[in-house]
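User: Can you predict the 3D structure of Electron transfer flavoprotein subunit beta? Sequence below.
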Amino acid sequence: MKILVAVKRVVDYNVRVRVKSDGSGVETDGVKMSINPFDEIALEEALRIRERGQAEEVIVASIGGDEVQQQLRTALAMGADRAIQVSTDAAVQPLTAARVFKALADRESPQIVFLGKQAIDDDCNQTGQMLAALWDRPQATFASKVEIEGSTATVAREVDAGLETIEVDLPAVMTSDLRLNEPRFVKLPDIMKAKRKPLETLSLDELGVEPAVEIEATAWEPPPKRSGGRKVDSVDALVTELKNKGLL
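Assistant: Sure. Here are the predicted structure tokens for Electron transfer flavoprotein subunit beta:
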């Protein structure tokens, strides 16, 4: 069984995000970039499934320029068997990403395509669901526990009311939630070994995917600074203030 894991290059979650002075985007020059944390959790779960003997190969894939090779090498150092870079300099939106991973699924025939539930840069939470629709396969989103038995996966998923447990037939699309696991620490010897693992580069044309810009961002701006709070003397005064601010 193969598992395909999608990883995205994002600004590290420990870095304070700054908007460029001209409002054209987020500042990335000299900023630490990492694997999207939810994608890292998805990769860790795929590696654990393989280590339990329930999968033979874990493949990681990322979309972008040569800079994404850094994150692919990190994924290889974590334990992935091989990596695929889908090379493009164009901005990739969720639907295009879903089409890319659908093409890779057709090419690699994985039993599971694992993604993070969302990326921390755009918070779209769309790619996994779109991929399931395009691939015409079941989906198990927001997974907090995954158990594989034969050709069936039992997935506990985070929902507003608590936990929901579902069964899906494989092949399937899964997206990881925060509580699924804690990713392993990458050691220096593993980083050195990762340099010898195969990293394949494909173009969008080779996969038959045309980048489509469905949404265009015209300007970026930081959120307004929070104003200081103040104390009130009673519950009635609190209710009055909330009404005055349009919150009730």
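The chain has one domain: 2-218. The helical segments are 37-51, 69-78, 94-108, 127-135, 188-194, 204-207, 235-244.
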